[in-house]
Description:
The chain is an all-alpha fold and 300 residues long. The chain has helices at residues 4-15, 21-37, 58-70, 74-87, 92-107, 111-124, 131-143, 154-169, 176-203, 207-220, 227-241, 244-257, 262-273, 285-298.
Amino acid sequence: MANSRTLISAGFGIAGFGGKVRLALLLFPIAGAVAISGCASKDDDLDLSAYVDTIEPADVLYNQALANLNAGRLDEAAKKFDAVDRQHPYSEFARKSLVMGAFANYRSGKYDDAIAMTKRYIALYPTQPEAAYAYYITGLSYYRQIPDITREQSMTRRSIAAFQEVVQTYPDSEYVEDSKAKIRFGRDQLAGKEMQVGRYYLERKDYLASIKRFRGVVEQYSNTRHIEEALARLVEAYYALGLTSEAQAAAAVLGQNYPDSDWYKDSYKLLQSGGLEPRENAGSWLSKAATAITGSKEGA
């Protein structure tokens, strides 16, 4: 019967042409199991192939991964890139494999795996050339998981955060323009979510809760397509509460920036029904908001 010492010794010998200590460590539990079973014969051949993590040169693995990627075999490419990182950690090929593997996982819809690889890259190599691309792939992976506005928007916020890293930290990157476009979409999505919740409260005549949501849109998302409706809804909610001065101020901001808007026409009619008209209010928070809205329009 083969003993543990013999198997472990054999393991180190086999590991000499690739596996090194890793194979030897794997053989400890195997050796124990064979020794305990008492069934193995000295003449039996022990097939260790299933336990050998074949070590291949980093450049060979990397080129195999690239070939799979070019051929559209995304899963195989991702596995090869991962093998480079596992077998040759901290090497130049491992560094490149992290971002390329993230790309392969992203293209195959394995967004969590893609994000895990980019986060590892950013943690290990924050100043290397591919860092901007790592953040970009992170943003794209979250971006592809953005749900409709009726659902929770954490993916949208994470996407925006990753794209903002590209824009702010790597302003000369080729990914900046697309990142900016996707940030605009994400912010519009968040504003749309706030509008959806605000309308919900408004329909139930919970005016204070609705005002909080619409005010958030005006103050935080002034350069989105929801700003006109948000101002009009504020006119409606303030008017319903009897806060006519605030209702008039909201209508004045709306008219100043969007005089031809249907939302402004509706707000104007609402005020007229009570013998009122739009009027600026220097003491209102809307006065400051008006400046931000005008500025965002000019900078668009």
